[in-house]
Structure formats: C-alpha cells, structure tokens
Design brief:
The complex is a heterodimer of chains A (275) and B (282). Chain A contains eleven helices and no strands. Chain B is globular and about 55 Å long. Chain B has one domain. The model of chain B has no long low-confidence stretch (mean pLDDT 90). In chain B, helix 9 runs antiparallel to helix 10. Chain B is mostly helical and 282 residues long. The chains are: A mainly alpha (275), B mainly alpha (282). The interface between A and B is large, with 46 and 47 residues.
C-alpha cells in the first residue's frame, strides 16, 4: 500500500518536473519572445505611473502602481499560461496525450504552474529594475521572510485558481477563451493593482473575498511600503486567507478536473477543435 | 459595377467577421463580454483619480486623459484586432491561404473585418464616455468644443487607425508564433508611446521623437483640445489650433502612406518566406 503511494508520489513529482522543464525551456526558447514577454507587460505599468505623475500625486502612488504592475506579470501567466493552456493543447491536438499519460492531471498542472512561476519571476525582474532605476521607488525596511511568505502564499492561491480555469477548457472552447480575455482588466480593477484597494470601500472587501490577487497585492504593499500603505486587513490575516484560498482552490481544481473530464468525454468535446 | 462589387465583398466579409466575433455566445453574454473590459479600464482610471483627488496638484488634467483613453478603444480594437484576424485565419481556422487566392482578396477581406472591429470599438468608446459622464463625473464644457476641427480630427484619426491596422496585418503575416506577443506589445506600446493617459512631455527626451511620428499622439492631443478646450502636453499647447490640426493631418497622411507601402512590402515578404500557410501548432 505504502509502496504504491510512494510510487504514485514519485510519478507525480517526475511528471510535474517534466512539464515544468518543457514550460521553462519553451519560455526561453525564443529570445525575441522572451524580451517581449519581459518588457511589454511593464509598459502598461509605466503608463499608469506616469499618469500619477501627470496628476501631481505623491510618489507613494507611483510605488503602489509599480508593485501592482509587477504582479500583473503573474496574473497574465495564470490566465494565459495556466488557464488557457489546455485550449492551446486542444487546438493543436495534444490534449488527449495528457489524458493517455499514466500520471495525474494535477501533476501536469502543478508542473505547468512551477515552470510558469519561475519564468514569470525572471520576467518580473524587469519590472523591479524599472522600479529601482527608472522610477526610483522608495521602499520601507522590510523582512525578506515576510516578503517571501506573502509572495509564495499569493502565488499558491493564484496558480491553484489557474488550475480551476484550466479545467474549464476540458469542456469549453472559445467561451472559456473569451472569459479569460474578459478577466484581464476587470481583475486589474477588482484587485486594485494600480490604486489602493481601500478606494473601493466595501466593494473592495467583496473583491478580496473572491480574488486572491486582491489580498496578495494588498499584503505585498503592506510589507514593502509599511505604514504608507494602510491595508484592508492586517498582513497576518491576509496571509492566512491566501493560504486558505490555495488549499480550497487546490481541492476544487481536483474535483473540477475529474468532473469536467468525465463530462467532456461523455459529450465528446475533449478532442473537439474549433468549438 | 466595380464599386458595387467591392461593396458587396466588404459587406460579406463584415458579416463573416461578425459571425466569428460573436457566434460563441448568446447576445446577452456577448454584450457583457463586450462591455466588461472598457468598463473595467474606465473604473480603474476613475479609482486612480479618486484615490489621489485630495493630494493631486494637477487633477484637472484627468478629463483629458479619460477622453483619450476612451478613443484609444479604436486603436486596441481595430489595429490589434486586425492583426489578430491574420493570426486566427492562419493558425486556428487555417483559411488564410484560401482567402488570399479568393476573388475577394485579402485587402478587401481585412477591410470588411475591420468594419466589425470599428463597430465594436465605437461601442467601447461610447460606453466609456457615457459611463464617465453620468457615473464618474468626467464632464466638460461644450461651449469650448470646436465641432469642425473635432470632426476633421475624428475622420483623420480613424483613417490613420485603419492604415495602422493594415500595417499590423502585414507584420502579423510575416511573423508566425511571435505575432501574438508582438500584437499584445503593440497594444501596450502604443498606450505608452502615444501618451494616452499622460502628456508625452513626461516621456524621456530620447523617446519623444518616436511618440511624435505616431499619428495617435497628435490625434489624442487634438481630441483633448477640440473637445475639452485644452490639451495636456505643454509643448503642443504652444501650437495654435490650426498648427496643431495641420501637424496632426500631416502626420496622419505621412503615416498612412508609410503603412500602405509597408503592408505591400510585408505581404510580398510573407509570400516569399512561405508564411501564408505556415502554422506553428501553438
């Protein structure tokens, strides 16, 4: 029994590692694409920072927009690199290979998340460089441990949410694709990426209860900007909520993958292209 | 006869474009999808302004940024959307080569598809302006509006948008997999370079020449000046109305000529490289 469990765990790790390898190598295969992926997401952030500057707002708001802008890289990776990945696989006729493989679907998604996270971290360094060298963002003294804890809790919550999104593509095609598309700017707004989430009042609290990105941005700002960034809740509470989101989303994703896989097999939509 | 035939072809490709854009959802869902993004951008800008209202020293400039952002919907929807048409036709439906050799031709086909994008862009822009006016309090004094220069500005800007769309189509034809990244980059790059939500004076000096050769930089400044009565760029504010309008027209015409030439050359290059039916299994 325990031997089977150990073998399953080993298979999970190996499958996840293999998928992460493909994701990392794929991300760095095209130098032009790599530069574009690293630079372009930060252009929007620059525009928002310059808008604050044009309005004559205090420098704190620029710092706030920079932190939000850096996190957009991850959100975009969750949406397009995780959520929509099964759509690409379905379009290219490779999705069925995942299901024919003897490993768990969660292992494939976990590998995709790990690889995507690593690639996004390198890309977000461009945002950090812009913050330091171009916009001269001033941070408060902070604990790297607190930063790491909040960051990884945010990423865990975001990428498990991405797993749920990915499961939708087992059944749906363009509907899910357009939903991903429509989630971009609304998520930027609901998570207060470019403004203090408290500006939204009670509506912001509701957003935080739905989107882990909202809590993650708020917690990271509290850690990096200190008292200049009054948050929705104390950082500890936000950290706990993010961990809770990650666990909850993980189990929802597992259930959702099983349910939608069966449903899409019954309806013959698992391998259906151009739907 | 030829005009009538061209019109029929444009109408047919516009109808096809509409089906492609909208047939994945029922009308209610599609409408929600259509308004979700522009509404969210409007609300984000409004929230940024609201957050800084008590501390910002130049808050009056916000209306100009908001209006330009509303009209930027045309650039996002038409320019980038036209590039996506090439990408989708080649990679997803694998029909690009058939469209190319059809009697309709690619140029007419893209023109028809761009009309749908124009309608979608108009809905987004109108929605943002209406939401701004009625819900967010972004208002202006219509007595300062100059209707004739504004009308000329609108026509010239939309023509330049169409020309830029064709240029992007040419680029998308030559590129394969990286076209997606370039299209998204164009969307964000134009948002920054054209000073949609800030005056271009704030850009580093070495980037500004690039901003000034783009027609949208002038378009947004003219829209601000002729709709609201004031621009946002200190340098452009030194120009008279006639000078600003003249400069905008000159840049739009020059850019459109370059775009037409660019499209023709890129089309030729794409054929030479065999890119019309080259899929990448994305």
């Amino acid at each position: 029994m325990s031997r089977t469990l150990a073998a399953d765990a080993m298979l999970f790790v190996r499958a996840a590692r293999a998928r992460a390898y493909v994701r990392i190598v794929g991300s760095f295969r095209e130098p032009n694409g790599l530069i574009a992926d690293a630079v372009f997401p930060n252009l929007g952030m620059c525009a928002f920072v310059l808008m604050y500057r044009a309005l004559g707002a205090p420098a704190y708001y620029e710092a706030l927009a920079v932190i939000g802008g850096i996190l957009t890289t991850y959100w975009m990776n969750v949406l397009w690199g995780m959520g929509a990945q099964f759509y690409w696989e379905k379009q290219s006729g490779q999705l069925q290979l995942y299901f024919a493989a003897p490993c768990s679907r969660m292992a494939i998604l976990a590998g995709m998340a790990a690889g995507g996270l690593l690639a996004s971290m390198l890309r977000s360094l461009v945002g950090v460089a812009l913050a330091v060298f171009v916009f001269h963002v001033q941070l408060e003294p902070f604990s790297p441990w607190h930063l790491a804890a909040v960051f990884f809790a945010t990423m865990a919550a975001l990428y498990t949410l991405g797993m749920i999104m990915a499961s939708l593509f087992l059944l749906y095609g363009r509907e899910a694709w357009h939903t991903c598309n429509a989630f971009m700017e609304p998520a930027f707004f609901l998570s207060g990426l470019y403004f203090p989430i408290r500006t939204l009042g009670a509506f912001g609290a509701v957003a935080a209860a739905i989107l882990p990105l909202t809590l993650g941005v708020d917690a990271l700002r509290q850690v990096l900007l200190g008292a200049r960034s009054p948050g929705l809740m104390p950082v500890r509470w936000e950290f706990a909520a993010l961990c809770g989101f990650a666990v909850l989303y993980f189990f929802v994703a597992r259930w959702s993958l099983r349910y939608l896989e069966n449903l899409s097999k019954r309806e013959g939509r698992l391998t259906q292209r151009w739907q | 006869m030829a005009v009538s035939e061209t019109f029929t072809r444009l109408r047919t490709s516009a109808w096809l474009g509409w089906q492609v854009e909208s047939n994945w959802a029922d009308p209610v869902v599609f409408f929600i999808y259509l308004i979700a993004r522009p509404l969210a951008v409007s609300l984000t800008l409004a929230a940024m302004y609201a957050a800084t209202r008590d501390t910002a020293t130049q808050g009056a400039a916000f209306a100009g940024f908001y209006v330009a952002n509303a009209f930027h919907a045309y650039v996002n929807t038409m320019v980038v959307g036209m590039g996506w048409v090439i990408f989708e036709e080649r990679e997803e439906s694998e029909m690009l080569k058939y469209v190319y050799v059809s009697p309709m031709g690619l140029v007419t086909y893209i023109g028809g598809r761009s009309f749908v994008r124009f309608v979608l862009g108009s809905i987004s822009a109108a929605l943002m302006l209406v939401v701004g006016w009625f819900l967010l309090g972004v208002r202006w004094d219509f007595s300062l509006t100059q209707p004739l220069p504004l009308a000329i500005t609108l026509v010239a800007g939309l023509a330049a948008t169409l020309a830029a769309g064709y240029l992007i189509c040419g680029i998308a034809m030559v590129l394969t997999r990286s076209a997606v990244t370039v299209l998204e980059g164009c969307m964000l790059g134009l948002y920054l370079l054209c000073g949609v939500i800030f005056p271009v004076d704030l850009m580093p000096v070495w980037i500004r020449p690039l901003s000034y050769v783009l027609p949208f930089t002038w378009w947004y400044e003219c829209l601000r000046r002729f709709l609201l009565g004031h621009g946002s760029s200190a340098w452009m504010n030194t120009l008279t109305d006639a000078q600003l309008l003249g400069a905008m027209l000159a840049v739009c015409v020059g850019f459109s000529l370059v775009a037409a030439f660019g499209y023709r050359e890129l089309d030729r290059l794409a054929r030479r490289l065999g890119r019309l039916d080259q899929t990448t299994m994305f």
